Amino acid sequence: MMSLRWQDAEPGDYAVIGNPIDHSKSPQIHQAAYQFHSLPLTYERFCVPLEEFSLALLHLTGLGYKGLNVTLPLKEAAFKWCKVVSPEAEAVGVLNTVNLLTKEGINTDIPAFISTLNQEGIPQGAPLMILGAGGSAQALILSLAKEGYTVSAWNRTKSRLDQLADASPFPFTVLDDPVPPPGVACIVNATSASLAGESLPLDWDSLSSDVLAYDLAYGKPLPFLESASDRGLKTRDGRQMLVEQGALAFEWWLGKLAPRSDMLKATYEHPGTHS
Ligand code: NAP
Fold first, then answer.
1. Is the domain of 164 the same as that of 130?
2. How many domains does the chain have?
3. CB 28 within 8 A of CB 267
4. pLDDT per residue over 123-157, tens digit each?
5. Tens digit of pLDDT for each residue in 18-41?
6. Are 94 and 9 members of one domain?
7. For residue range 171-219, what is the model confidence (pLDDT) as tens digits?
8. Is 256 a catalytic residue?
9. Axis crossing angle, helix 109-119 with helix 135-146, rounded to the nearest 10
10. Measured in angstroms, how far is the CA atom of residue 71 from the centroid of ligand 1?
11. Buried/exposed 203-214: b ≥16 CB within 10 Å, e otherwise
């Protein structure tokens, strides 16, 4: 499926916007849900540069669009554009799901991630180690700390985490070195290193086999999960989170239960690497 410039959009119902957006799987995921419920709705994808964000939303609203999923680099702009935001979005200052008609916005990435932690039996409050300090890592660190998890974080460029910790109302530990703290239940790779085929300098030796190694990326061999698997750790990639964030957006917009297994199946049928 080709993605279009927002200026070339035709009338429609829902879409994902971002830049770049060519590899987004959101159209497949949402179209699978429309098919399941026999809903005569469209879901497109549009490339929207950051500086054209407000103009693009005005244009798409005029064409009859009701809701948008928003991915990088637009999640902060979407937060600022919305008049009403959910508590999850408020805590992290970014969101990924917008109702164009009411100007409401929610963040479904965060509950989607927490839902996958729950599925893996990681209880609220468990010690977690987050790797990274980009958009996804920052949102996870703040929301997990807010939810009462014991969060330690490491990033290649430590100053980014120091700044986040200084500004955060929710305490978390900034690690000097990529050494997992004792008793950690889950290590989350929220860096983009795996997508570039790069390994992380994590000290794996202290980890026991009941620790979960979770990479937010998916869709290609991930060095982080390969290293974890070699050492006998449990592993999970980001595909389930991708489906869950889409399912929660679908349910918020349409008030119908999302067919998660059909949506998951759709992610295997077409190439793509992100939401
Ligand atoms: P981002 O904002 O570009 O941040 C990149 C982060 O990765 C930075 O902390 C950077 O460190 C670090 N990094 C990059 N290469 C590295 C390397 N070789 N060694 C160590 N650190 C490295 O990225 P993002 O948008 O937050 O996305 C992060 C990952 O999450 C991506 O893999 C993305 O596909 C995935 N994701 C998945 C989902 C899902 O639904 N499954 C949703 C969102 C994101 P510096 O600060 O030192 O540069």
1. yes
2. 2
3. yes
4. 989 999 999 999 889 999 999 999 999 999 999 99
5. 999 988 999 999 999 999 999 999
6. yes
7. 999 999 999 999 999 999 999 898 888 999 999 988 999 999 999 998 8
8. no
9. 70
10. 13
11. ebeebeeebbbb
Residue of 129, 136, 140, 202 best suited for mutating to test ligand 1, as the one with most atoms within 8 Å of CB: 136
116 and 196 housed in the same domain: yes
User: Which pLDDT does position 65 carry in this prediction?
Assistant: 98
User: Contact at 8 Å (CB) between 179 and 172?
Assistant: no
Residue having the nearest C-alpha atom to atom 36 of ligand 1: 216
Most ligand 1 atoms within 8 A of CB, residue of 72, 75, 156, 273 to mutate: 156
Distance (angstroms) between ligand 1 centre and the Cα of 136 equals: 7
Q: Is residue 227 part of a domain?
A: yes
Indicate if 230 and 248 belong to the same structural domain. no
Q: Cα(211) to centroid of ligand 1, in Å?
A: 21
Residues β-bridged to residue 97: 69, 106
CATH number of the domain encompassing residue 260: 3.40.50.10860
Domain of residue 134, CATH code: 3.40.50.720
CA-nearest residue for atom 4, ligand 1, is 134
Ligand 1: nearest atom to the Cα of 245: 40
Task: Find the catalytic residue in 75, 80, 158, 265.
Answer: 75
> Which atom of ligand 1 is nearest the CA belonging to 198?
18
Do 82 and 93 reside in the same domain of the chain?
yes
pTM of the model: 0.91
How distant is the alpha carbon of residue 78 from its chain centre? 15
Asked whether residue 273 carries a pLDDT value surpassing 60, the answer given is no
Boundaries of domain holding 170: 111-237
Nearest to 235 by CA among 224, 245, 246: 224
Per-residue pLDDT at 271 exceeds 80 = no
pLDDT at residue 169 tops 70: yes
* Backbone CA torsion sign across 188, 110, 83, 7: positive
Cα 58 to ligand 1 centroid, rounded to whole Å? 30
